[in-house]
Amino acid sequence: MSHSQAQPKARLKPGQYLILLLVALCAPLGDSCLSRGMSALPGISLTHPLVLLHAVFTPWIAGGILLLIAFFACYLTALSWADLTYVLPTTAFGYVLIALLGRFWLHEHISVWRWAGIILITLGVGFVARGPSLTEANVASATQQASEENA
Amino acid sequence: MIAPVALPNGVGFWPASAMIVTVSITSTIGEVLTAAAMKSIGDLDAIRARNGLRGAIRAVLTCPLFFAGVSFLALAFFALLFALNHLDLSLAAPASASLTLVTNAVAAKLFLHENVDRRRWVAAVLVCVGVYLIAH
Question: How far apart are alpha carbons A31 and A60 in whole angstroms?
Fold first, then answer.
């Protein structure tokens, strides 16, 4: 059927892969900063929710929040041209990048289970990346939108 | 009788599950709303090329759906902070992250009508198990 040829292919440009890489890197780095900051604080109960607000202004948590803001800007950009189910596995690929950085840069030990996790996530991301980045109906409406704007 | 699962920090199985499920549900609602908002706005790179960075930021900030999404993401964020304070990072982070991946795939198919084909289901499950293994 020539139907698939008539549809524009939802393939990504190099700059869009760069955005996805930033999505993958900023999220786990930000989360690591948050967990470091939160574990340094005493226990917080639901009866004192304002303590959570105070936590926002401690250095590690503030740094983590800045990284997560950068992540969010890239994430929103990615969602504007790709499916949610395409972008989300990318976020998980960040765990792989962080684990590999730890292994080859900080010479941390990676257990067999972690290697198994790295392989599974990489396989999963590979599966999704080989497919289209945007559902066909949305591709059609996106190109229609673009041609209306050009007209 | 089901043997109670021993958790560190004296938190029981059900409270721990409730914290993790709360994080997953709020973040799934937030992500689906945000994704719907960004799809309604259109390609941000194209908008930035036409109207500059300010135009792109204005396009996002004038979208009501975006604020609905961000509100739920903020709720999820504070729910995660709360969970991290009571549970070990090695339990709370991978459990909520991998649960969220699967609930998101279901929600994206139901509400965003994304074409979640077999390839994406397999990927969601692989990544879900992988995230748990790598972060545990």
Answer: 10
- Subunit contact B89:A39, Cβ cutoff 8 A: yes
Q: Under 8 Å CB-to-CB from B7, ≥6 apart: which residues?
A: B13, B16, B87, B91
Distance separating alpha carbons of residues A142 and B96, to the nearest angstrom: 33
Judged by CB atoms closer than 8 Å, whether chains meet at B126 and A123 is answered as yes
Q: What is the pLDDT of residues A87-144, one digit of tens each?
A: 988 888 888 888 887 788 777 788 898 889 889 988 888 888 777 888 876 666 666 6
Instruction: Please report the ipTM that was assigned to this predicted complex.
Output: 0.81
Yes or no: say if A31 and B135 are a contact pair by the CB < 8 Å rule: no
Domain ranges in chain A? 13-146
pTM above 0.80, yes or no: no
**Taking the domains of chain B in order of start, what are their residue ranges?**
8-135
* Pick from A9, A150, A46: nearest CA to B22: A46
Tell me if B81 and A76 make a contact (CB, 8 A cut-off): no
* Contacts across the A-B interface (CB distance below 8 Å): 150
Residue A60 at interface with chain B, using a CB cutoff of 8 Å: no
Choose among B6, B21, B4, B3: nearest CA to B83.
B21
Q: Does B78 touch chain A (CB under 8 A)?
A: yes
